[in-house]
UniProtKB/TrEMBL annotation:
Belongs to the peptidase C1 family. The chain crosses the membrane at residues 6-24. This is Cathepsin propeptide inhibitor domain-containing protein. One of its GO terms (molecular function) is cysteine-type peptidase activity. It holds the Pfam family Inhibitor_I29. It comes from the Eukaryota. The keyword Lipid metabolism does not apply. The keyword Transmembrane applies. The lineage of its organism: Eukaryota, Metazoa, Ecdysozoa, Arthropoda, Hexapoda.
Length: 219
């Protein structure tokens, strides 16, 4: 075997090792681009005409896909949590915290605790410190999906309104009413945001416990 033949053989082998990963990466990138295109259409993203922002959002979207893949790889069975894309999958963690988590709320809670939880509720007999421990039965089902039983209304989108306290409480009351009456009635979250002002501050934050007290006193 002459030197030229040997070098050619080594080159072919090297191409096999380096070329295949490149093809795989290109295929995955193409799949990600198709998913991102579908994502921008589904959630009506407004940056599709801005190439710089589009590229930045696509990179964040790829990070979300990687995280989803890693989390789903940890599933221990069919009943484990399954992760997927949401309308926030093109946001950075900093953006999500800024627009959705209202970091100043905890400071307001510490400064004005009475605005959120009334003294009446804090002294209520059903306070968590007085709850009795209940025995857990061993024959419980593997899972319970209340959607299949028609006990939950569709998911709401609160957008940038910091009223998770109202959305979560109202939808819980809707489900509790269904379990009691068999009727799934859509209730008004907006009424709770506008009217339950016993320490709550509308889209600037509130407390589920004070809303429950307001509902009990105004039924």
């Amino acid at each position: 075997m002459d030197l030229r033949t040997f070098i050619t053989g080594v080159g072919v082998v090297a191409l096999c090792f380096f070329g295949i990963p490149i093809r795989i990466d290109d295929k995955k990138l193409a799949e990600h681009r198709l998913k991102f295109q579908s994502f921008t259409q589904q959630y009506n993203k407004g940056y599709v005409m801005d190439q710089n922002e589009y590229d930045m959002r696509f990179e964040l979207f790829q990070n979300s896909l990687k995280m989803i893949e890693e989390l789903n790889s940890l599933r221990s069975g069919e009943n484990s949590a399954y992760y997927g894309l949401t309308e926030f999958s093109d946001l950075s963690q900093e953006e999500f915290m800024h627009y959705k988590l209202h970091p100043l709320l905890s400071k307001r809670l510490r400064k004005h605790p009475g605005h959120y939880v009334s003294a009446t509720f804090r002294n209520h007999d059903h306070h968590h410190n007085r709850l009795k421990k209940r025995a857990v039965e061993s024959d419980l089902p593997q899972k319970v999906d209340w959607r299949e039983k028609g006990a939950v209304t569709p998911v709401n989108n609160q957008k940038t309104c910091g009223a998770c306290w109202a959305f979560s409480t109202v939808q819980t009351v809707e489900s509790m009413n269904f379990l009691k009456t068999g009727q799934l009635i859509k209730l008004s979250v907006q009424q709770a945001i506008d009217c339950a002002r016993n320490g709550n501050m509308g889209c600037d934050g509130g407390d589920t416990c004070s809303l429950l007290m307001w509902l009990a006193n105004n039924k």
